[in-house]
């Protein structure tokens, strides 16, 4: 009897271990397929893009352009193609130039944590805009920390959690990321980015519509990007602005406008 019980127990343990290994293998396979389907590029030059912004009920419709390399430059042109506002984002700093009022707002990625409870870095932001998988706050993608949740309609969710943030990436039936959500574990802040209208451009399938939503009890922001023209893997030259020509201003003033 003892031998039968021992044999049954060992067999059950082996079955559980086998199921766990099978589940881990399936998770790895799904993640690898999604990463193979990601847009793969070194540079992106979005030369024509419309931008709709709703910030706590204040709406703006403008034209914009964006250059992505080791830094990210976003140019806002509300009318006649004249650059009125520019963001220069690097791993170490975020500079916002108000070219009309000659003001410069200087901050860094700590702003996201102090204001919204989101610990994000430049790589995270670049991955969000580029429709790529990432694990928020990590230098490298941490596949071993991710779990998979099956949904209806052949959808799946890749979930990553750390002490401060729960990150969810929703995967469609074509194994592409159709939504990434960052939810603070320490506040009521939620950010979600939706991707749609995937189109092949120079062999790279990229979403032509990117919608960003950020919500908290005090604030609501919707930002819709509609891309009309983008070129990948071409040489990018960033135009520089002399900060000395601008008056320094508090970033909090800009966020209250």
Mean pLDDT level: 86
Strand order within the widest sheet? 7-8-9-10-11-12-13-1-2-3-4-5-6-14
Oligomer: single chain
Q: What helical percentage do the residues reach?
A: 10-25%
Q: Report the count of strand segments.
A: 14
Number of helices: 4
Briefly note the structural class of the backbone: alpha+beta
* CA-CA gap between termini: 78 Å
Secondary-structure element pattern, one letter each: HEEEEEEHHEEEEEEEEH
Q: What percentage of amino acids are in beta strands?
A: 35-45%
What sort of overall outline do the alpha carbons produce when their principal axes are compared? globular
The poorly predicted ranges are 15-23
Report on the biggest sheet: 14 strands, mixed
Structure description:
- There is one protein chain.
- The protein starts with a helix and ends with a helix.
- The protein is α+β, with helices and mostly antiparallel strands.
- The relative contact order is 0.17.
- The radius of gyration is 22 Å and the shape is globular.
- Strands 7-8-9-10-11-12-13-1-2-3-4-5-6-14 form a 14-stranded mixed sheet.
- The model is unreliable at 15-23 (pLDDT under 50).
- It is built from four helices and 14 strands.
- It has helices spanning 2-37, 110-116, 122-130, 251-256; strands at 44-55, 58-68, 72-77, 85-89, 94-98, 103-107, 146-150, 156-161, 165-171, 177-184, 190-201, 204-215, 220-232, 247-249.
Properties at a glance:
alpha+beta; 257 residues; 14 strands; globular; 23% helix; 14-stranded mixed beta sheet; 4 helices
